[in-house]
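Subject: sequence -> structure tokens, single chain

Hey, anyone have a minute? Need the predicted structure for the following. Not urgent.
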Amino acid sequence: MITSRRAFLKTAALSGASLVIGFDGGRLLQAIDASVAGSFQPNGWVCINSDGTIILTIGKCEMGQGVRTSLAMILAEELEAEWTRIKLLQAKPSADSDLGTGGSDSMASSWKPLRQAGAAAREMLITAAATRWKVDRGSCKAVDGAIEHSASGRRLDYGSLVADAAKVQLPENPPLKNATDFKIIGHRTARIDGPDIVSGKARYGVDVKVPGMLYASLERPPFLGAKVKNLREDNARAVGGVKSVIKLPRGIVVVANSTWSAIKGRTALAVEWSEPPKDAFDSDAHWKKLQTASRETGFVTREEKPPSGTGAITKTIDATYYYPFYAHAPVETMNCVADVRGNRCTIWAPTQAPERLQKQVAQLLGIAPRRQSSDPTSLVAR
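Reply:
Had a minute. Here:
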């Protein structure tokens, strides 16, 4: 299930049987009723429902690195939640969101906010239980999705406490667990989305289908500025299912009623491109340039000296290591689905930057960004 933040907040704020805590950078934000919904604008949020389910909504994309599981583990650890009760939702961009995945910082940027959000919810639930039992909150503790009172053996599940917990003041600096007490973080944990991935339930960009949709395959130029010398457009149009051939500044698109027809039509184009200029990028020449540069004096970025008392150098070892080129590209075929209707556009795409996509598409179509929505899907591992 994927939801927009605005729709989720409206639902959560109007429900008296949910505890909702959002996080925006280093801040914790809380929504408890409709009157505060307008100011509740986090980048991610945690919702504990009356049935005990815990929903973590995040703006980080799954790219094969298992980040959904890792982030859920952080939350579950501090919240003392039952691992099986946590559900994940992918956030979609809105006018005031700040979503994106990049820089290998999904864990680094989410570590503290998620821990604080989980700890805050835990402390609020403890306070709610202690108040109901009329006991000192110090005699209560969170264990496996419930609050226990050690002296009497009483126990209340989180779901039965959320309505009361939502009325508790959000703690500014909730106590965080010591690393020595971690039961989930640092331990082998099955991927939270593993069953969906292996069973085919996980949704990727290429899985999106819209009734009556067409398919496009793009023939790209071999270098920047390449011109078309010759192409067999009639041959492409003769392929069954091909609807159109469109020339763009950066390539030629074949549009058809199926992926197979689009690819076959693109092949039938047999495009001949102009010769590259003398200064065009050449892989072999670039490799030789790097080899030459590696033997020249460069900039010293770090200098390490041996400890005092180290003997004189008796042997020098010289070695050359070659690191092949790795494209920053997914295994999954690059894809995107666009549904344009009147002055509105909906995009489904495996993208790391849904907000950037939203703005660029809105600019291209000449529509307001609010009339263009981006729906990020999972990305196949690179």
